[in-house]
What does this fold into?
Amino acid sequence: MKYTDVNGKLADYRQQIAAIRERMRETLATVEPEPVIDYDFADTEGSVRLSQLFGEHDDLIVIHNMGVSCPNCTLWADGYNGIHQHVVTRAGFVVTSPDRPAVQKRFAESRGWKFPMVSHVGSTFAADMGYVSAGGGWIAGVSVFRREGDAIVRVSDTGFSPSDDFCTLWHFFDLLPGGIGEEPRAAAKPSCCNHA
It folds into this structure.
């Protein structure tokens, strides 16, 4: 197929994706928020509550990261550095994982991460939010919370998976002649990010 023909077809697909995204936003606007408790997390300073993670914002984005054992989670998190300063103009932002705070701190420093991290070790947070699989493994994703007076509600969430919209690297690789290939996935352990 000629280059111009393929470009036209791809442009049409991208318009279809944009239309689907608009329908998703419209659907999300109708959702009834889910009340949640004010969970306790651990950080390098001690204990911190979910309500404290909002900072001065009414909205909070919490990333469900599977920890240092998941190369794909590390790849997603590497991408947050570039957008973190922009995200926090609209909402609080934090990454949570099952790793203990000291492990998180060492790993974050080794990657140059600038965003805050908290540990949900010892809490039911990940399970209650649906980010623990039936087999007991961690699941990667994101939950968005809103503060309504003294109450906290979850307004949206979605799981992550290889090649999703939450890692721009895969989309750049998609434009290469070999597509994504095996590089981003080859580093992942078999159970990583597959909801096993």
